[in-house]
Amino acid sequence: MSEIYRRRIQQLQKIMVENGIDAIGIIDLPNYIYYSGDIRKQPRLYIPSSGEPLLVIFKGEEDEVKRNSWIKNIATYTNLHEMMKAVMAWIEEHRVKKMGFDMEFSLPAFLLQRFRMAVPNVEVVDARDILMEQRMIKNEDEIRLIKKAQEIAIIGMKKAEEVLSDGIKEYELTNEIEYAMRKAGAEAFSFHTFVNSGYRSSWLHGLSTRKEIGRKETILIDVGPVYMGYCGDMTRMFYTGKAD
To answer: Is the entire prediction scored with pTM above 0.85?
Structure first.
C-alpha cells in the first residue's frame, strides 16, 4: 500500500512543477489520508515539489504514525509556536517561494493569518484545483472504499426502518442510526445526521432535536458516513403509519 501513496505524491509533484508551486500544505483529513495513509485528529502534511514530504504531528504520536504511514520525515510539536517553527524551518530548507493550500473549506482563517505573518516572503495560493485535478479520477481501490461507505449508509437506513416508531425522539433515532453505522466501520460523518419529523420534514437541513415523532408523520433521514476518508450519502423519507 505504501507505494500507492508514494505514487500519488509523485504525481502531485509533477502537477505542482507544471503550475509553478514549490510546496503544498495538507491540513484536511480526506486529503491527508489520500496522500499519507494515516488518520489523524489534526492532520499536517507538507509536500515539496521535489523530495520527501513532511508530517507534523503532536509529540507522543510518533509510534502510531510510523505504524500507519509510509512517510518517515516527521516533526513533532506541543503547541502552535512549535508547529509553526517546524514548518518555517522546512520552508527555509526547501526554499519555498510559492505555497498552496486547499482554501475552500478546510483552512482556518487564523492559521492562514499566522502563516502569512510568519513567512511574509512566501506567496500563498489556493491549491484546491490542483488537488482535485488529481483526485477526480478514482482508481479501483477508491471505488471499493466509496462502495463500502455507501454500504454503511444502507446499514444506517435499515436500522432507522427497524427502530422507527411513533413516540421515539429524533435524537434517539439518530443515536441508533449512527451507532449502527459506527459498528459497520464508519470513522466519522461528513455532516450531522438529519432526522426531521412532522412539520420539520420539509426542511432541507436540520439537526435532530428532542421532538417526539408522532403518529402519521413523515420523517426525512439523511446520513453521510465516512469510511477511510470516503463518503457515503443517502436520503430517505419514512412514514409512521399506513399512507393513504
So the answer is: no
Grid coordinates representing 54 are 513532511
Tens-place pLDDT, residues 52-100: 999 999 998 888 888 888 898 999 999 988 988 999 999 999 999 999 9
Cell of 220: 426525512
* Structural domain boundaries in the chain: 1-136, 140-240
How many Cα atoms sit within 13 Å of 230 on the Cβ side?
20
Site of grid cell 437506513? 157
Of 64 and 193, more confident:
193
Read off the amino acid at residue 167: G
Quick: pLDDT tens for 221-237: 999 999 988 999 999 99
For 154, other C-beta atoms within 10 Å of its C-beta total 15
CATH number given to 140-240:
3.90.230.10
Q: Give the strand pairing for 54-58 and 45-48.
A: antiparallel
Calculate the dihedral angle through the C-alpha atoms of 77, 82, 85, 87, rounding to the nearest 10 degrees.
30
Amino acid at 222: D
- For residue 164 the three cell numbers come to 422507527
Angle at 119 (CA atoms; ends 115, 124), nearest 5 degrees: 65
CATH assignment, 1-136 = 3.40.350.10
Cβ atoms of residues 88 and 114 within 8 Å:
no
- CB 162 within 8 Å of CB 196: no
Dihedral, CA of residue 41, residue 24, residue 101 and residue 93, to nearest 10: 90
